Protein 1
Amino acid sequence: MRDILSGRQVICAITLGVTFPSRTFTKTINGQIGEMNSGWLRECEGGGATLLTETLPWRVLYGGFIGSLPNMIGFYIRVVGMGIRISPSGGVTCLGTSTVSDPAEFRLDLVERETQIAGIRALNEGGIPISGLFCSSGDYVKFNGQGEVYTGSETRVRLRLV
């Protein structure tokens, strides 16, 4: 996760816990397909940040697929309701909350021609707007980087089209 505040950056590693309550979901843009029910930030540089866990669970919405059916190579998810408190070194504290119009966006990549989710990448080009007494309009939180996706038992997650 990267926070951009008037040229200052706070960079933190992030871990997110997601639950998909159903084994299937419809391909409806912005349809809810799951929930993020936990999250941790660690190893912050340039200041501090906190995920506002009191705002959990955060809604996980379907954002579309990549490739052509039946050979998808990935799909997008949008996270809505995610709350973040950012405090850059020597700066003020600002709050950000993802919304339907400004979601935290991620891409889940599939192993080519398989149903196994190979990884996750952050996509927020515009970022999540932040606010606060001394926070500038136009400042934002931006997710950056990639990671791996596992079940609680260290098993890769599988996706099947029906």
Protein 2
Amino acid sequence: MRNAALIFISLWPLIANGATTTTYTIRDIIASAEAGNIHSQYIVGKSLYNNEPVEPDVAYKYLLSAAKKGHSGAQYIMFELYRDGLTDLGVGTEGNIILARDKINQLLWLLKSADGGNIEALYELGLFYIFADPITEDEREAIKYFRRAAELGHGRAAMKLGFYYLKGIYIKKDIGEGIRWLVKSTELGYIESNKFLSRIYKNGEYGVKKDEKLSEYYKLGSDSN
């Protein structure tokens, strides 16, 4: 472990021995992880992507432990590892950790994370069921997960729902629902939806009536961010 006593992690409050604080050394957090604290295990595990000074095999051990215990954030990172196909994460006493790209494990960890309410996992499941491969393609499942993510506040998922309703892709065409979800996406701060709505109203696309005022309104919304 590199410079363990000198590196600090902030912004991740933990509860240790009945006291709450906002700054811990890496050594403190690893000790907490070793004692079984699931959130500490997750933080250590995140170092696989965050370039923290923790040996990868140590980080992976705690990440996997947190994921198996039901931490939805750790489960989502497990999905990312299998998606990205990271290899040679580190050398431990039993050799290198090898994680090849594996769609089955991607799906398994995504489902677990989504069951825990992870909003990014819900969105990624929507993508997975559309783009993964013909075997796992399931348009109804994709729409179901996009809708759940959008309802929980995922702007990109809301935009996808809106687009699919306008186009009649994977779902029955419904212009009103399409516009509703696109507007919801703008309210969630997803700027691409502002741009899309501005274009739709400017050109009268997808059967939507032209409206220069609305086009300018959504254009201003995109320009202001």
